Amino acid sequence: MQALKRVAQLDDIGGVVAFLASDDARWNTGDTVRGDGGSKLLRPFMRGTMESPEISYLYTIALLGISFMGFAAIVMLLREALGGHLRPFDVLFARIYMEGALIVSMGAMLPPLLMFWALSTGAVWRLCSGLVGVPLLGIALSYPARRRATTGKSTPRYVRVNTTIVLLISLTLLIDATGLLHERSGPAFLAALTAFLTFSLVGWLQALSIILVPVAN
Asked: Could you point out which of 6, 68, 85, 166 has its C-alpha 20 to 30 Å from the C-alpha of 101?
């Protein structure tokens, strides 16, 4: 993708090489001369390369989120294999974590996708923060009611603590979406996404001892 909106010809590159090899370039030293048709102008978010630290980090988060979602499904199958039937609460529990893993994975893939629309770096981070923060806020606000409807019991204290943590993460993302964090919008998005994924993984590991206990039919 070039700003000149055409494919480079041999003369386009040859002219640059001829200049650098001539005496006219004798004052150019220790520098990099780009002959890319202005592609860097269309990729401010990528910093001129598909291997920037932010993109590599986002790919890692997306991979972890997808792996976590698959692991959650495997655990549910394992529970049935151990001879226990799935209670409605088990289904809800697995679904909540799968929803969270999906949000993390899609959120991590959004910045590279939006980069192709030639948006500014700040606009990419703000838009991603809003698109991830809204569904996380929905999970935090709706889970207590969904849990009560499934179990018929009041919301335990630890559930209120957990939903409060998710609520704080979602509010951080929504604040980031407003642009108040300015140049820190990118680190804030990455930190919030990482915090939610870490929180989900820790919560799931702590709940395994309960989930894997077979329930007699």
From this structure: 85
Per-residue DSSP letter, 36:
S
How many C-beta atoms surround the C-beta of residue 207 within 10 A? 14
Sorted by sequence, the CB contacts under 8 Å of residue 214 that are 6+ apart come out as 79, 82, 83, 84
CA 185 – CA 123 distance, rounded (Å): 9
Alpha-carbon span 211 to 200, nearest angstrom: 15
The predicted pLDDT at position 112 comes to 87
Instruction: Count the domains in the chain.
Output: 2
What is the predicted pLDDT for the residue at 91? 80
Q: Tell me whether residue 203 is exposed, middle or buried, using C-beta atoms within 10 angstroms of its C-beta: 0 to 12, 13 to 18, 19 or more.
A: middle
Structural domain including 146 reads 53-211
Task: Determine the pLDDT at residue 82.
Answer: 67
pLDDT on residue 46: 45
CB 153 within 8 A of CB 169: no
Q: Which residues of the chain have pLDDT under 50?
A: 1, 45-51, 216-217
Task: Give me 156's structure tokens.
Answer: 């335990």
**Whether residue 67 sits in one domain with residue 138:** yes
CA distance 191 to 139: 19
CA pair distance 91, 93, nearest whole angstrom: 5
